[in-house]
Structures are given as structure tokens and as C-alpha cells.
Specification:
OB fold (Dihydrolipoamide Acetyltransferase, E2P); five-stranded antiparallel β-sheet; 363 residues; alpha+beta; 2 domains; Rossmann fold; 20 strands; six-stranded mixed β-sheet
Length: 363
């Protein structure tokens, strides 16, 4: 049974439909990330759960109780904002203690709770510092401890790491996940960063245009995208326009070449399709006569990504990218003639009447 439920939530702002009937069920102690580009409705959904806004229709249920019309301070939810929102005139200790003091908790109990939480977030040594004396990452740790101090039933995080530099973001997201698992708290996390969402979540819900395009485990979202938008938004994808030649053999024609794609067996002869292929599944080698499922081309550019180098290839009327071990890519510098072998069993097909969105404009 779901612990946190968003039931057919709708929210309009004038002519803008921010949420268009989203449905979510999250088990107790699970971590769900709402992932999507700016303006897709993810923060609106979080604000509705927190009680800072009310839906035009639908219900929010926590542990079997409808909280849709309950005031935010009566929902027992902890909120961590993007901009920290610490009280500048209070020390870290007093910021964490604030919610407990408002609730009239005993002073000795407050002190123990605050000490425990500061230790939990790695700031046991910094309780007497003021926000201006703390780094951005440390301030966000204080904000997290403050949200957890009241022992909330649900923890809500709205782009909590977007203001931090890349290295601190990685460190802090791992800390958030560690703390969430240690406390077993049900968590709803909003982000536009796919790597962030995939690395720390039990489930990911990809949103677009106020709707949930797909919800599932991170591995499922990456390997089996259910819609054109999810296929393009999660990870990087090669796209080849093609026509199904022989469904029985699983062959398609693209750029004058015939390729075998297992997914084509479920399509009709002559159907126009998009072949979608992840860059890490493309095998690249020095040109030696294109094989049965290869495209011959020229290396245009290298993008160094550490142990992996992203290689862009053009040829046979197609443009491809492949992620290769950096040591192997070094042997195929720009200008090299190469054969790019495509995986027959790992490519996904979408009908061409399902156009992929231009994410450059969305983000």
C-alpha cells in the first residue's frame, strides 16, 4: 500500500496547465525523484504536497489520511529549499532547533536532538557558527538537519543542490541518500539533473508538460524508455530515421544501408521509424570494410570525459556518437576512417509519428 499518494492532481495558472492529472504512489521509506526540464510541473507538485499551494482537483494522501486541505504546519513534512533559507541571525544549532522550539519541545530533548542531527549531517563541530561563516554545502547540511529535526513523515527537497559546485553536489547527494536510508524516511526529491536522479533514487518519475511520462526504477528508465521524451531526456541517444524493409528478418533501411534491428520484427513492412541507440553500445574500430550491421564514417570530434571519450562520427548519411574507453579512442583521432557497429538487439524503435521534442528549447 502506498504511503504517499498523489491522486489525479490538477493545477492551472491562468491558461497554463502546470499539472494535468498526475498520479504517484510511493511506499513508506522510499525515495522518489521528480525529474524534468524547467516548467514541467515538478516544483508545483512538490509545493502541493508541502501545502504551500492547493490543487484545483485531486487529492494528496499520507499514510491513508487525506491532507489536501490541511495547513502546511499540520502535515508533519520537512522541506529543504534550493536557497537554504536559513535564519542569518541564528547559529547552525539554533536554526536546527527552531522547529522543535516552536512545537514546545523540552529544552533537554531539543539539545539532544540537535546534537544528534548535527552529527548525522557531519557538522557536530560547527553548531555555533552563523550561516555566513559556513560554505554553501555546509549551509545546505544545516537546512537538511533542520528539516529532519521535527521527525517529519515525508521529506521534501526542491532542487537542493543546484546552487553548489559540481564536486560538492556529488558529495552531498550521496550524504542525502545515506541519511535517508539510515532514517528510513519517505522522500520526494525535485531535480532537473538526470545523473542526480538516477544515482540516488529508488524510483524516478519523468515529467513533461504537467504529466508523468514514465515512472520506474532508474535502470528501467534508462534501458526501456516508454515515450519519445523519456528516450531523449534520460541519457544521450543516437537517432536514425529508417524504413522497415523485412519485419521477419528484422531489417530496416537508413541512408542507403540495411541494418538489422530486432525491434523491427514487431513493425509493419514500409513503416517509417526512428532507431534509437545509446552511445555506449556502439562499437568503433578502424575502417576495414563495413560489416553486416555497421556504418562507415569519419571521426569528427573527441570529447574527453575522463575514462570515457565521446566520439562523433559522420558517414553514410548518418551522424553517430559513441562512448569509448579513452585509451582506445586515442588511437582513432579526428579524421580517422572508422566502422561503427550497431547493436541489433539493444536498439529501440519509435514510430516517426511520435516526434522527439527539441530539448534545447525546453531546458
Amino acid at each position: 500500500m502506498a504511503y504517499l499518494e498523489l491522486q489525479d492532481l490538477h493545477r492551472d495558472f491562468g491558461t497554463v496547465k502546470a499539472l494535468d492529472g498526475i498520479e504517484i504512489g510511493l511506499g513508506e521509506g522510499e525515495f522518489l525523484s521528480l525529474l524534468g526540464p524547467s516548467g514541467c510541473g515538478k516544483t508545483t507538485a512538490l509545493r502541493l504536497v508541502a501545502g504551500f499551494d492547493r490543487p484545483d482537483a485531486g487529492h494528496i494522501v499520507v499514510d491513508g489520511k487525506d491532507v489536501t486541505r490541511i495547513a502546511p504546519n499540520k502535515r508533519d513534512m520537512g522541506m529543504v529549499f534550493q536557497a537554504y533559507s536559513l535564519f542569518p541571525n541564528m547559529t547552525a544549532r539554533h536554526n536546527v532547533e527552531f522547529g522543535l522550539r516552536i512545537r514546545g519541545k523540552d529544552r533537554a530533548d531539543r539539545r539532544k536532538r540537535v546534537d544528534d542531527l548535527l552529527e548525522l549531517v557531519g557538522l557536530g563541530h560547527a553548531g555555533d557558527r552563523y550561516p555566513h561563516q559556513l560554505s554553501g554545502g555546509m549551509q545546505q547540511r544545516v537546512a537538511l538537519a533542520r528539516a529532519l529535526a521535527i521527525e517529519p513523515r515525508v521529506l521534501l527537497l526542491d532542487e537542493p543542490l543546484s546552487a553548489l559546485d559540481a564536486k560538492v553536489r556529488v558529495q552531498l547527494r550521496e550524504e542525502i541518500r545515506r541519511i535517508q536510508l539510515e532514517l528510513g524516511i519517505t522522500t520526494l526529491y525535485v531535480t532537473h539533473d538526470q545523473e542526480e536522479a538516477l544515482s540516488i533514487s529508488d524510483h524516478v518519475a519523468v515529467m513533461y508538460g504537467g504529466k508523468i511520462e514514465q515512472m520506474g526504477a532508474p535502470a528501467e528508465m534508462y534501458t526501456a524508455p516508454a515515450t519519445p521524451f523519456v528516450a531523449e531526456f534520460i541519457g544521450t541517444m543516437n537517432r536514425l530515421e529508417a524504413t522497415v524493409v523485412d519485419p521477419a528478418a528484422g531489417t530496416v533501411e537508413t541512408g542507403g544501408r540495411t541494418l538489422t534491428v530486432e525491434a523491427a520484427r514487431s513493425k509493419a513492412r514500409g513503416a517509417r521509424v526512428l532507431v534509437l541507440i545509446r552511445p555506449e553500445t556502439v562499437e568503433v574500430a578502424a575502417a576495414n570494410g563495413a560489416g553486416a550491421n555497421s556504418i562507415t564514417g569519419e571521426v569528427l570530434t573527441h570529447t574527453f570525459l575522463g575514462p570515457v571519450t565521446r566520439v562523433r562520427i559522420a558517414g553514410d548519411g548518418a551522424s553517430l556518437i559513441a562512448d569509448m574507453p579513452t585509451a582506445r579512442a586515442a588511437a582513432l583521432p579526428p579524421g580517422s576512417k572508422v566502422d561503427a557497429s550497431l547493436p541489433a538487439g539493444e536498439a529501440r524503435l519509435l514510430d516517426l509519428d511520435e516526434p522527439l521534442p527539441d530539448l534545447q528549447e525546453e531546458i
